[in-house]
């Protein structure tokens, strides 16, 4: 009989394993196929001696500035429109939603990236209105937003991109949008401000940022970003916007490849409620003001590790800020037949409403975990399975072992809650993040438009 080591590697220590699988995302044809600030001082981005955590988020890298302003599109007394600007003609990569009701902003961004050959200087973003299910008029509004941004910044029209988030099916109040763009441009001309991460929030309770600095060929290279997302979160990036920047010099095709891999291992491994949004977008811009990064090089490998770490940290912050959530759940599967099987098992457990409510209720009901494993589609023999929460072993050889309910309950009070599973079927492993499910989720979504 398979005998797993216990606790599993990293469980209870707050560490996460890197995972790899095929991303189910669509990319631009141009490339082929409030209150809480999460800063360097309180960020959980790891420092393994490979990089240093820094402040600045999406504006940390050289060449980038950002600003958020109050356009009063839906919200009052808070910023709800913003712009990221690059002083250079930056290489850009994008990964977008698979939802068939995709916002016209997605179509427009793909067209813009193709026209520019994979370069951009600005991204304009609004919150409160998704500009989705708005037809031809919505596409014209998306174009008007990038045209106004480009005119205000004095850049070519095709080098501005757009993202929107909020209520679906309502037309944008374009007079307010235009005034907001003018105000954001003025703020950028004044040096920018720190409100961009806040201006993209909808039901989010915290601004979400991360940035690191590493050394390549003796020169500092930074990777930073910010994101939004709290509800309508599922694999394939659902309802989230993420903006990542770097001062590395990377050509667009390689940048796209790196972003696709990072998204597959991070943003596509989170879930709050299983709903995939119409507007999901991840952008990565590279100003080229620091060292060059090329494929199949040590510099390329180290840069991609840092990029993945920033994306992972942003993704975890989205899962932790799930609507009504009180804690993050991290499901780590080892001993699977392969990585794809590990991913299926981890996703099934993390997305199970029964598991999520058990975590909220601090009930160590491991039978719900076993049930989710059973329908996950992963191949294993139940007599080889081990399950634990934190450092408390609950199941070994597919059956309950003696454990203290008090100790198990104590592990469920942690944040994050670590669920460890060894399938005893091979060497595959994967990690997936979600959050507990509470009454607050229902309350938040029952009154979203009010």
Please provide a brief summary of the model.
By secondary structure, the protein is an alpha+beta fold.
Topology:
Blueprint: E1 26-27, E2 36-37, E3 52-53, E4 64-69, E5 81-96, H1 104-116, E6 119-129, H2 135-153, E7 160-167, H3 174-189, H4 196-199, E8 206-216, E9 219-228, E10 241-246, H5 252-265, E11 281-286, H6 298-320, E12 328-336, H7 339-351, H8 353-360, H9 366-375, E13 386-389, E14 392-396, E15 399-400, H10 405-411, E16 417-422, E17 428-435, H11 439-446
Parallel strand pairs: 2-8, 6-7, 10-11, 12-16
Antiparallel strand pairs: 1-5, 3-8, 4-5, 5-6, 5-11, 8-9, 9-10, 12-17, 13-14, 13-16, 14-15
Helix pairs in contact: 1-2, 2-3, 5-6, 7-9
Walk me through what this model shows.
With 450 residues, this protein is α+β, with helices and mostly antiparallel strands. It folds into two domains: 34-320, L-amino peptidase D-ALA esterase/amidase, CATH 3.60.70.12; 328-446, Ubiquitin-like (UB roll) (Roll). 30% of the residues lie in helices and 25% in strands. It is built from eleven helices and 17 strands. The protein has helices at residues 104-116, 135-153, 174-189, 196-199, 252-265, 298-320, 339-351, 353-360, 366-375, 405-411, 439-446; strands at 26-27, 36-37, 52-53, 64-69, 81-96, 119-129, 160-167, 206-216, 219-228, 241-246, 281-286, 328-336, 386-389, 392-396, 399-400, 417-422, 428-435. The strands form two sheets. Strands 1, 2, 3, 4, 5, 6, 7, 8, 9, 10 and 11 form an eleven-stranded mixed beta sheet that branches. Strand 14 and strand 15 form a beta hairpin. The termini are far apart. Mean pLDDT is 87; it is low at 1-44 and 232-238.
């Amino acid at each position: 009989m398979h005998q797993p080591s216990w606790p599993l590697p990293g469980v209870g220590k707050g560490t996460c394993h890197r995972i790899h699988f095929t991303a189910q995302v669509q990319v631009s044809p141009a490339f082929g196929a409030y209150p809480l600030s999460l800063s360097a001082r309180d960020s959980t981005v790891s420092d393994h001696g490979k990089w240093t955590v820094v402040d600045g988020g999406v504006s940390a890298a050289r060449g980038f500035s950002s600003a958020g302003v109050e356009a009063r599109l839906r919200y009052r007394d808070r910023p709800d429109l913003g712009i990221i600007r690059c002083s250079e003609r930056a290489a850009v990569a994008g990964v977008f939603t698979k939802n068939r009701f995709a916002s016209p902003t997605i179509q427009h961004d793909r067209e813009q990236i193709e026209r520019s050959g994979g370069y951009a200087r600005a991204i304009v973003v609004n919150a409160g209105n998704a500009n989705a299910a708005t037809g031809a008029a919505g596409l014209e509004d998306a174009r008007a937003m990038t045209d106004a941004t480009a005119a205000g910044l004095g850049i070519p029209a095709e080098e501005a991109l757009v993202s929107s988030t909020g209520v679906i099916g309502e037309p944008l109040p374009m007079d307010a949008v235009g005034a907001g763009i003018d105000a954001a441009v003025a703020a950028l001309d004044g040096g920018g401000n720190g409100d961009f991460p806040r201006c993209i929030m909808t039901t989010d309770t915290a601004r979400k940022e991360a940035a690191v600095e590493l050394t390549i060929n003796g020169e500092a290279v930074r990777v930073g970003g910010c994101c939004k997302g709290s509800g309508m979160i599922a694999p394939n990036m659902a309802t989230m916007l993420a903006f990542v920047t770097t001062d590395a010099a990377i050509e667009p095709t390689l940048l796209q490849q790196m972003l696709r891999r990072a998204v597959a291992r991070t943003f596509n491994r989170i879930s709050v409620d299983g709903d995939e949004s119409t507007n999901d977008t991840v952008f990565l811009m590279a100003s080229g003001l620091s060292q060059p990064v090329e494929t199949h090089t040590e510099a390329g490998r180290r840069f991609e590790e840092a990029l993945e770490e920033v994306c992972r940290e942003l993704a975890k912050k989205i899962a932790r800020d799930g609507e009504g959530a009180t804690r993050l759940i991290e499901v780590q599967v080892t001993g699977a037949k392969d990585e794809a099987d590990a991913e299926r098992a981890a996703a099934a457990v993390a997305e199970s409403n029964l598991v999520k409510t058990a975590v909220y209720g601090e009930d160590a009901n491991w039978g719900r975990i076993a049930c989710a494993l059973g329908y996950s589609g992963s191949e294993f023999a139940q007599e080889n399975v081990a399950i634990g929460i934190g450092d408390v072993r609950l199941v070994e050889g597919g059956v309950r072992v003696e454990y203290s309910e008090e100790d198990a309950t104590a592990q469920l009070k942690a944040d994050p809650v670590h669920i460890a599973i060894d399938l005893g079927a091979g060497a595959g492993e994967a990690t997936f993040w979600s959050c507990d499910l509470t009454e607050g989720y229902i309350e938040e979504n029952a009154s979203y438009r009010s």
